[in-house]
Structures are given as C-alpha cells and as structure tokens.
Design goal:
The chain has about 280 residues and is of the alpha/beta class. The protein has helices at about 5-10, 25, 30-50, 65-85, 90-105, 105-120, 140-150, 180-190, 205-215, 230-235, 240-245, 265-275, 275-280, and strands spanning about 55-60, 130-135, 155-160, 175-180, 195-200, 225-230, 255-260.
Length: about 280
C-alpha cells in the first residue's frame, strides 16, 4: 500500500506544481523574458478578439479634475488662505488650486474628444479609432468617460506602481489591462495608434510624448498624427524654438506635431490625415 502522507507531501511540493500554474516560479528573475512575452500577447490577443483595428492614444495629467470639483477645491483653499494668510504652505496650496481650476476645462475637452471620436468611428460594430489611455484618473478618465457616454469601447493600459493605482470606472471591462513593464505598455500604446493627443500633463505625459516624437523623428514609426491640446500651455512649457536655434532639432522636426484648442479641432486634424472623406467634407 502506498504511503498516503508521503504522496500528499509530493503533490503539495512546489516542484510538482505545473510550471504554468506556479506563480512563484513565474516571478523569478530568470523568467523575465517569458513575462515580457506574456505581457505582449495577452492584451494583443484580447484586442484581436474584441475587433480593435486602430486606436487614438490620449495622454494628460492624472491630477486634473472636472471643473465643478476644481472649483470646490479652490473655494476650500481660498477659505483656508483667508484664515491663515501668512502660512506659506497654505499660500502654495491656494496657488496650485487656482492653477488647477484654470486647467480644469481640459477635462471637459478630453471627455468631448472621447465622445466625438467614438460616436464617429464605432459604427455597425466596427472598432476603429478606439480611445486608449493610461487607464487612470484625470484626463485619462475623461477620455474613457467620453467614449462610455456614447456606448463606445475604450481601452485602459494601467501600470502596477508602488503606490496604489486603480483603473477609472469608464474603461470597457474587457479592455482594461494591467502591466508590470512600462516598455510593453508603451509598445501597446503605439501598435495600433493612428494618432496621439496630448493634453496638459506632467512627467508621464511628457515621457510618452517625447518617446513618440523621437520614434517619428528617427523613422521607427510613421503615420502617427501628434496633436498638442492647448498651445499656450505647451509653448510655455517647452521652448521649441530654443531647440531649433541651438541646432538640437531641425526646423522640419516642428512639423511632427500640431496644435489644437478644442476636441473638434483635434478630431478635424486627425480625420484630415486619416479619413480623406472627412477632410473633403470640411472643404
């Protein structure tokens, strides 16, 4: 008769566990190449199953909120400032609240853009120009929300971070992904992208914007229309002319991107490049 306790020990041993079901094994440093492949294949195959043929990437700050909330935060900050007018920290908080309130309309424009693109392109079951964001709050939430407003699909490419990061509730559930590696996430952003629309944002927005511009400049990627929303913001943030005058980029490199102020202007620019019939209607 077999020793049942010994058999039980053998079956519970990590070595006996099937490799594809052994999470501890899959987490080993030596398995990084396998994890990279899985992180490419899972979102890719799901997008194929969902019929996603092309996308528009929307970037922007996770910290910008819709105008009503920004106004409420500004009111609270000004009340605190009135009670503590000489406190530098309170002064700083109030100044940031004013700046955030000034930028808050971009939330509405991002939402309008998601709504406009999704209603124009997701017709009769087709999945073209699907909105894809980083999946977080702020501008990302607004763009996903606009797609949801009109019943359109939209994608969220979330990233696992040391601090908690939750997907916004407007992403299509079957297209809500989480990544371990920034590199694979970036590949998915551009793989089906016809365009990239960048709203005001911080390090993450700048990272994705400049990576895309570099890929276009070097010819690694072609045909992606880059639109910067809010010319005053971008020209204050980045001295493009200084880069040209210093010989660090070419004059022609300034043609790699366009400016727009509204969702409609951004969509018209994109459609003119990628939908000739739309361009004809605008003439």
């Amino acid at each position: 008769m077999p020793d049942e306790s010994r058999l039980s020990d053998l079956r519970s041993s990590p070595a006996y566990r099937r490799a594809d079901q052994d999470l501890e094994f899959l987490a080993r440093d030596e398995l990084r190449a396998v994890r990279l492949q899985l992180e490419w294949l899972k979102p890719e195959l799901i997008q194929q199953d969902e019929g996603i043929r092309s996308t528009i990437v929307v970037f922007g700050s996770a910290r910008l909120v819709e105008p009503a909330l920004a106004e409420q935060r500004l009111k609270e900050a000004e009340e605190e400032l009135a009670a503590n007018p000489d406190d530098p920290a309170v002064q700083r908080t109030a100044a940031i609240a004013r700046a955030q309130f000034k930028l808050a309309p971009y939330y509405d424009e991002a939402r309008a853009f998601g709504r406009l693109v999704s209603s124009a392109c997701q017709i009769d079951g087709q999945c073209d120009f699907v909105i894809v964001t980083g999946g977080g709050p702020g501008i990302m939430e607004a763009a996903n929300r606009g797609a949801a407003d009109v019943g359109g699909k939209s994608i969220g490419l979330n990233i696992a971070l040391p601090h908690e990061q939750k997907p916004n509730p407007y992403i299509t559930p079957s297209l809500c992904f989480q990544f371990r590696y920034f590199a694979l996430r970036k590949m998915h952003f551009l793989y089906r992208a016809t365009s990239l629309v960048a709203f005001p944002g911080g390090f993450g927005t700048l990272d994705e914007l400049f990576e895309t511009l570099t890929l276009l400049q070097t010819g690694k990627v072609s045909g992606v229309t880059v639109v910067l929303i809010g010319r005053a913001f971008w020209e204050q943030l980045i001295n493009w002319s200084f880069l040209v005058d210093s010989g660090l980029i070419s004059e022609e490199d300034l043609q790699l991107f366009h400016y727009a102020e509204t969702a409609q202007e951004a969509w018209d620019l994109i459609a003119a490049n990628h939908l000739p019939q739309h361009a004809a209607r605008q003439e």
